[in-house]
Design brief:
YjgH-like, deaminase activity, 29% strand, single chain, globular, alpha+beta, YjgF/YER057c/UK114, six-stranded mixed beta sheet, 60s Ribosomal Protein L30, Chain: A, RidA family protein
């Protein structure tokens, strides 16, 4: 069996260890990032929704950076939102702070009833930048 090429950002290992998953895995030039939530370093959620969304993007940015990528490399995004009828517009107002310029990645929004104590999660697939030959 092949060994997974796992990417860990600095900090936040408490959440990954508690729930037994990897933050991201590199494979064939792509980075598959697990859903990132608005968790603090100890794994607890940011209590206020908008701050939870911002923290989820910051946590995502940290995972991407650890792999040598940025949000500009993201090709597919899935958002999970608890109670999207009342929260989608609030979350979507924050997205441009992190999203970047067109062309945009594909995006899917899924309404859910439970996210392990969180209200927002973002999962992405990124095409890793080509590395310069040494």
């Amino acid at each position: 069996m092949a060994t997974r090429d796992v990417v860990f950002p600095a900090g936040r290992h408490a959440l990954y260890e508690k729930h037994r998953y990897s933050p991201a895995v590199r494979s064939d030039g792509f980075l598959f990032v697990s859903g990132q939530v608005g968790s603090r370093e100890d794994g607890s959620p940011e209590p206020e929704f908008e701050q939870q969304v911002r923290r989820a993007f910051e946590n995502l940015d940290a995972v991407l950076a650890a792999a040598g990528a940025s949000f500009d490399d993201v090709v597919d995004v899935t958002f999970f939102i608890v109670d999207p009828a009342s929260r989608f517009e609030r979350a979507w107002q924050i997205v441009p702070e992190y999203w970047g310029e067109a062309p945009f990645p594909t995006a899917t929004v899924v309404g859910v009833t439970w996210l392990a104590g969180f209200d927002f999660e973002i999962k992405v697939v990124a095409k890793l930048p080509a590395r310069d030959a040494d």
